[in-house]
Amino acid sequence: MExxxxxxxxxxLHVGSMIGFFILLFGYINYKTxxxxxxxxxxxxxxxxxxxxxIGAIPGCGGSLAIMPLYISGDLSFGAVVASLISxxxxxxxxxxxxNFKMYIFVTIIGIITGIITGYIVDLYNxxxxxxxxxxxxxxxxxxxxxxxxxxxxxxxxxIAHNHGNINSLAxxxxxxxxxxxxxxxxxxxxxxMIIAHSGLEYEWIESIHELEELIASIGxxxxxxxxxxxxxxxxxxxxxxxxxxxxxxxxxLIHSVGEISFVIVWIYFAYLIYDLxxxxxxxxxxxxxxxxxxxxxxxxIGAALGLIPGCGVxxxxxxxxxxxxxxxxxxxxxxxxxxxxxLFPLLAMDKKSSFWAAVVTTIPAxxxxxxxxxxxG
Length: 378
Fold this sequence. Notes:
- The chain is mostly helical.
- The protein has one domain.
- 77% of the residues lie in helices and 0% in strands.
- The relative contact order is 0.15.
- About 7% of the residues have low confidence.
- InterPro entries: ArsP_2.
- Keywords: Membrane, Transmembrane, Transmembrane helix.
């Protein structure tokens, strides 16, 4: 029991609460701006890889997800999409922000520069034409998506929720009823506990608060698992329509943000459990660190290969291992450049050929840059 509770305390209080705060913050910013920042992309074709890389660097997958409709509609170059995917760290960015902000800045700068250079190379050599990615269906898909979004706006925010499935199901009640509000309250309590724990203050009342940390952490992990399961039942996947819904409704933004937070925290929790189990089984952290470190350049290739897996789950686990001292920086950089997070899902659904070549193209600079970083820093 102590093993499970200690992992819960680390995952929810010391990492998850900080991650949740940032996800809610960026979600609110995206809601208030209504995604207007992406409109700047279509104004100047020459600046698209630059702007695409900068937007992709926004923590989480929202930046890259937001620009996918522009590529599908033919208003955005393939180079801009590649640049955005390269610079994106996905939800793993929130973990690095909370644990090592200086390293987050370093990894982000590397990703942005690599994204810009690769994006301009892709557009300069016209990869979109060479790979025959000029789909005739892009305009039709764009018009279909646009009409659906317009219909959503006309029907109002109340109808948005009805598009999510059975409104009488338990999962829907959890996600759209008091569930997400209760979860946010638990998260904020955890965030306060985290600030107090790292404040360095020593008072009697603080000591009494520390005694409640295990309870709050356990409640937070259980709530995260319940909400994540319910959210997955209601929302089958990340897609463009849901991104539009988040811009139309504050409650939808909060519901989706809580879904993302719960998913990240659950992955972090199991990452800590897996890591601790491995550590116990092999005889200590130093043993596993030596095993990974002695793999040399292979660790970079493995990091880049793991980035080919859509979603953020594997990347979160890898980042957690790095922060524990078990993964070389070069492997983390390679994974960060290669991985596309949830942004690949809508592209995979609407243009499988483009998603395939995007994954291939991002892997090449991932291995190259990761190798350089490994040689320089390890």
